[in-house]
Design a protein that fits this description.
Helix 4 crosses helix 12. Strands 1, 2, 3, 4, 5, 6, 7 and 9 form an eight-stranded mixed β-sheet that branches. The protein has a two-stranded antiparallel ribbon with strand order 8-10. The chain contains 33 helices and ten strands. It is elongated and about 100 Å long. The chain is α/β, with parallel strands linked by helices and 730 residues long. 64% of the residues lie in helices and 7% in strands. The chain folds into five domains: 173 residues, Rossmann fold, CATH 3.40.50.300; 95 residues, Helix Hairpins; 192 residues, no CATH class; 152 residues, no CATH class; 33 residues, no CATH class.
Length: 730
């Protein structure tokens, strides 16, 4: 078994289409990395920001295309990951689905398996981490399990590759079998009676039967699955209305008799089906069921009510210290490289718009963003360690107690973390992750406050300002910025829940995966995937916006009369006998460049905002960058680089942006802190605004987020700057 290189991929004809599916932390991605190595393609599914991982490899001369679906606990449409997984399975129809099941947590993992069986997809179960199960005294009789489930079961250890060859031998054999009838589970007399009534109506009207089994569609309607209901409504509104009425009758009956919704009853019977299988001598235990496992022993310390948060704070501070201590020399090296590149272009090209665009728009703009790649890379590596080890789930568990106090649900923790709660995330998937919240008000409060987190787009901006004015304590200030983001987000959520989104918090239950040692291959792959996404964004979106903003900061240029004044100044300087003629000419050129920038379209916008922004300490060039940040926060760095390159009155225009800000008379540590606060909390980027509008179902909440966040950020920045003036620090 070996991965295919890029040339081989082109020549492969009709490779076997295999999909990996399973719960988060089940080892699915570990198996994918083992099969494909670094030769894999990572993109996004259409319309969402969920990773789409695809790779190719050969096994016994068979060419195989393998897709790694996002980890999910079920196929119910509560989250974007569940929607992506379900849609891919029913629309793409892979030749075989490998369900990765954690052998040490069999009952929980088989819940997803039951839904695969009900959907009637071709399935092979990869029973992963059998070594962990054995250490816990758990022995699983795979042949008995396979017989009871009706699908092949192969024990493997994905980390080491043990059993993988046998797994794919089984997959190749099973892929030739085309008959995969759906498994019929029983859900009690009430639901079974409802299914008996609605399945014939679905079949007779051919409602979605080209895509889903009729019984499965019926279950989804009884579960009030929004996506299936929308599709059914679009296909046949009259039949769907009848089916929904039957579902509402069932819901009312169950609420009256057993105080439960249909989806809860269905889930209970699925677990009952799983338990009935496991009790048939499928699992035997050699140790005491109540013994404390290693993960449990660790959790008694790291999730302790008092010690746990202190450990969490120490881990985060260590992450930032590691990032800045080990990335500084690479950042400085890249800054020198871009400075050298700028000097080279300056010496080669003649003066004119092309030269200005390349130096100020591309090198100083995009180069300023790319200069932070080492910091991004080290940060993502540290986060990958926390994710792959299972610690991030503990962070969510501990934060749940705090979230309830602020009127949020425990499941809100993960959207906050995904959005950048430990820095480096993205608010768009964070907003989409709020789909797991069933309470509409908790969901709305969460999606409106996750943009306060320090996402990966803000990271280079924060690093720039902290490096310019607080360089001796970078890790400390980045840690404080993270803490401030959490505090502000939670306070904003509390305000929303006490005003426009009043309501009680709902209870929270989550599963803590066992701790594991991350593999180096997995860490490097995860780090590279995220770093590459950042680099691609800098080379595409940020490049385009940087060039657009360069044009706005360049044109229409100076009027002829003002340009003539600077020409006259140069002539007078040239004809003089001054010994510092070159320095004087450079200063005149710098003054002219600043005048051009002031007269440009962007300069006029920045100056127009100064009557308000000066209360927060922002000058007109800073305003230009902040306006650009409405499109994407990384643009702030590239725009500052372009603005201070075009308008630098110093003759030494080859220093880094960080040094330019530090020496600029309009900037000081108080201004830096004020700008830092504004960037952290003002309006989300445009893509996040669109995501909020889509998830909230209304643009009014998207505009509310823009206005609420920006007004709050401005008030905070004004307070910081004015306090600095009163204390004599500004």
């Amino acid at each position: 078994m070996r991965p295919l290189d890029s040339q081989e991929k082109i020549t492969v004809n009709n490779p076997l289409h295999i999909t990996l599916a399973g719960n988060p932390n089940s080892g699915k991605t570990t198996l994918f990395n083992h099969l494909t190595g670094a030769r894999q393609h990572v993109g996004n599914y259409p319309g969402v920001t969920v990773d789409k991982k695809e790779g190719f490899f050969t096994f016994n001369t068979n060419s195989i295309r393998i897709i790694d679906l996002p980890g999910t606990y079920s196929l119910t449409a509560y989250s974007v990951e569940e929607l992506v997984a379900r849609d891919y399975l029913v629309n793409e129809k892979p030749d075989m689905v490998i369900d990765i099941v954690d052998a040490s947590n069999l009952e929980r993992n088989l819940y997803l398996t039951t839904q695969f069986l009900e959907l009637g997809i071709p399935l092979v179960i990869a029973l992963n981490m059998v070594d962990v199960a054995e250490k816990r005294g758990i022995k699983i009789h795979t042949q008995k399990l396979a017989k009871l489930l009706g699908v092949p079961v192969v024990p493997i250890i994905a980390r080491s590759g043990q059993g993988v060859d046998e797994l794919f031998t089984t997959v190749l054999t099973a892929s030739g079998e085309r008959d995969h009838p759906p498994t019929l589970l029983r859900y009690g007399p009430d639901i079974d009676e409802a299914l008996r009534e609605i399945i014939p109506r679905i079949e007779n009207s051919h409602l979605l039967t080209d895509t889903y089994p009729a019984r499965w569609t019926g279950l989804k309607i009884l579960e009030n699955d929004e996506q299936i209901l929308d599709k059914a409504q679009a296909a046949d509104s009259e039949v769907t209305r009848t089916l929904v009425q039957r579902s509402e009758t069932l819901t009312h009956h169950l609420q009256t008799t057993v105080d439960a919704f249909p989806e809860a009853v269905i889930a209970d019977h699925r677990y009952g089906f799983i338990k009935s299988i496991l009790r048939q001598e499928v699992v035997t235990r050699t140790f005491d069921n109540n013994r404390l496992y290693t993960s449990d022993k660790i959790d008694k310390i790291v999730t302790n009510r008092i010690i746990g948060p202190l450990i969490m704070a120490a881990i985060l501070f260590t992450l930032y210290s590691f990032t800045f201590n080990f990335s500084t020399f690479l950042v400085d090296w890249l800054a020198s490289l871009f400075a050298l590149l700028s000097q080279t272009v300056d010496s080669i090209l003649p003066d004119g718009p092309i030269k200005s665009m390349i130096i100020s728009g591309v090198i100083d703009g995009v180069g300023g963003v790319l200069g932070f790649v080492p910091i991004i890379m080290f940060m993502f590596f540290g986060i990958a360690v926390l994710e792959d080890s299972g610690y991030l789930a503990r962070v969510a568990f501990m934060m749940d107690r705090i979230f309830h106090f602020f009127g949020l649900h425990g499941s809100s923790v993960m959207p906050f973390i995904v959005s950048g709660g430990i820095a480096g995330g993205c608010a768009v998937p964070g907003v989409m992750a709020t789909r797991t919240l069933r309470s509409p008000k908790e969901r709305m409060a969460t999606l409106l406050t996750v943009p306060f987190m320090n996402c990966g787009a803000k990271l280079p901006v924060l690093t720039l300002i902290i490096g310019a004015f607080f360089s001796s304590h970078q890790a400390r200030y980045m840690f404080l910025a993270t803490v401030a983001a959490w505090i502000v987000a939670l306070m904003a959520a509390k305000f929303l829940r006490m005003t426009v989104l009043k309501g009680e918090s709902t209870p929270f239950v989550m599963e803590l995966p066992p701790y594991r040692f991350p593999t180096l291959k997995g860490l490097f792959i995860h780090t590279w995937e995220r770093t590459w996404q950042y680099i691609k964004k800098a080379g595409t979106v940020i490049l385009g916006i940087s060039i657009l903003l360069w044009a706005m900061m360049t044109y229409p240029g100076l009027p002829h009369q003002e340009a003539a004044v600077f020409d006259q100044m140069r002539q007078e300087t040239t004809s003089s006998q001054s010994a510092d003629i070159q320095d004087e000419l450079a200063k005149i050129n710098g003054l002219e460049a600043e005048a051009k920038l002031r007269n440009s379209l962007a300069g006029r916008i920045g100056i127009a905002l100064e009557p308000v922004s000066h209360y927060a300490g922002f000058d007109w060039r800073t305003n230009i960058a902040l306006v650009g940040g409405f499109a994407a926060k990384e643009v702030i760095v590239s725009t500052l680089g372009t603005a201070y390159s075009l308008g630098d009155i110093d003759s030494q225009n080859t220093t880094s942006l960080k040094d330019r800000l530090a020496r600029d008379p309009h900037w000081n540590p108080v201004v830096g802190l004020s700008v830092l606060a504004f960037i952290m909390f003002y309006a989300p980027c445009f893509v996040t605004i669109v995501a909020i509008a889509n998830e909230a179902g209304s643009w009014k909440w998207a505009f509310f987020s823009m206005g609420f966040n920006t007004v709050f950020a401005l008030i905070l920045s004004v307070a910081i700057y004015q306090a600095g003036i009163l204390l004599g620090l500004a």
